[in-house]
Amino acid sequence: MVAYQFPPAGGSGVQRTAKFAKYLPAYGWEPVILTRETNRLVLRDDTLLEDLPSGMEIIRTPARDLTALPGVLSKAGKFIAWKILVPDGEVLWMKHALEKALARLGKGDISCLYTTSYPYSDHLMGLEIRKAYPGIPWVADFRDEWTNNPYLLDKPHPEWRARRERRMERQVLEKADRLIANTPVMKRNFLALHPDLDLDRRMHVIPNGYDDEDFRLDRKENPEGREYRFTITYTGSLYQRRTPDVFLEAAGRLVESGIIPADKLRIRFIGSMKEGPVRRVARQSGLEGIVEVLPYMNHKDCIEHMLKSHVLLLLEGGRGSECFYTGKLFEYIRANRPILALVPLKGAAADLVRRTRTGIICDWSDTAAVERGIAELYDRWTRGSMTLNPNLGEIRKYERKALAGKLAGILDELAAGMPP
To answer: Hey, what's the torsion of the CAs at 189, 192, 193, 198, to 10 degrees?
Structure first.
């Protein structure tokens, strides 16, 4: 399993491969992880590493992370990593870690190869391994789209780079024996962009999910122990187009009009984000003293905050974001708290909230709709009627162990020599 992002690195992107690695042994597969070393991690969560089976083989190689350079070198390092190196700064790690990968494969006991992106350099290592070991089946997992990533619509690459990355992406799509997309919308996009590759037979959809064991906390899940104020919690990252501005403006209107008294409302943001912009919008919206910004915390503590909340906030908008399931959404639906989803109405996230019957969906750009959504949830809270009627059968489909079983089924087919 080639995964540059792996525990004890923190963040939502780490958890997908970590949970696959945790549960694959239950299906007869023993993961061997090739990843980066643990120094200079931007986000760190040792609880994710503790969650893995003891004795798992993890091969760590120097990260060569230019974004973590100290002092005055930091800005130059980030520019090189994000603007110069193709397809990403982690290509430096990939080129040096390849020797370790080939040496480990040379022992002859590896039955399948799994690579996951982001970073896309993980898949480039897959291409190099394919050249050296063409007989080892390869699964390429796309947590997000590559050249069709919606965030590139906001800040597109120069055409020379876009052409080069399209060639790289196509090579991966051509050479991998099986491909995994994170959402059905993502798979449809890949098929539409590459109609000549007959991807439909080789590409599977395995979404992100939740680990039921993460919700078995030592501390009791007691409704009386929740916040005394109506508490809306967001967990995750805020960057580029993913901002809380529309939500905070809508909440501010409700406070200003007296529909929600200021002393009855708490809005909490937890995760990797710049505090200044959030506080500025909160202040402009009349929400000073109501909005809290907490730094990134370990996964279990974050889940505890979810369970103490009354509403969980989901933010995802902008052109092309219809394809996204954010990783946090699956933990939201398991937390059994109403979700306020500010997302594209016809996107993957909205579809999941509808099918699981776990929340209210508002168009991410419609302040009036968001205002109505917050007001409805607050009214339900004051009346003591926050109880959900979730579709439990649908929710259970996204349990991490079950999803690892889907990956194991793909690996079983490849190891048995089944053709694409």
So the answer is: 110
Distance from C-alpha of 316 to C-alpha of 305, rounded to nearest angstrom: 21
23 residue type, one letter: Y
Q: Which residues have CB under 8 Å from 401's CB, separation 6+?
A: 23, 26, 211, 212
The Cα–Cα gap between 26 and 405 comes to 8
- Residue recorded with tokens 């974001």: 321
Torsion on CA atoms 357, 360, 361, 367, rounded to nearest 10: 180
Tokens of 44: 């760190």
Scanning the structure block, which residue is given the tokens 């909440």? 251
- Closest Cα to residue 118, out of 155, 81, 76? 81
d(Cα 239, Cα 344) in Å, to the nearest integer? 17
Report the 10 Å Cβ neighbour count for 297: 17
Per-residue pLDDT of the chain (420 residues), as tens digits, is 999 999 999 987 899 999 999 999 999 999 999 999 999 898 999 999 998 999 999 999 999 999 988 888 899 999 999 999 999 999 999 999 999 999 999 999 999 999 999 999 999 999 999 999 999 999 999 999 999 988 887 789 999 999 999 999 999 999 999 999 999 989 999 999 999 998 999 999 999 999 999 998 655 444 444 568 999 999 988 877 789 999 999 999 999 999 999 999 999 999 988 899 999 999 999 999 999 999 999 998 999 999 999 999 999 877 767 777 778 899 999 999 999 999 999 888 999 999 999 999 999 999 999 999 999 999 999 999 888 899 999 999 999 999 999 999 999 999 998 665
Both structure tokens of 103: 């040496």
> What does the DSSP 8-state code read for residue 9?
B
Half-sphere exposure of 296 (CA within 13 A, CB side): 16
* Residue from 120, 325, 359 nearest 207 by CA: 325
Give the position of tokens 């639906």: 333
Q: Distance from CA of residue 287 to its chain's centroid?
A: 29
The candidate with the shortest Cα–Cα distance to 381, out of 199, 254, 193, is 254
Which pTM does this prediction carry? Answer: 0.92
Please report the DSSP string for 72-139 in residue order: THHHHHHHIIIIISSS-TTHHHHHHHHHHHHHHHTTS----EEEEESSTHHHHHHHHHHHH-TTS-EE
Distance CA 149, CA 310 (A): 33
Neighbours of 186 (CB within 10 A): 25
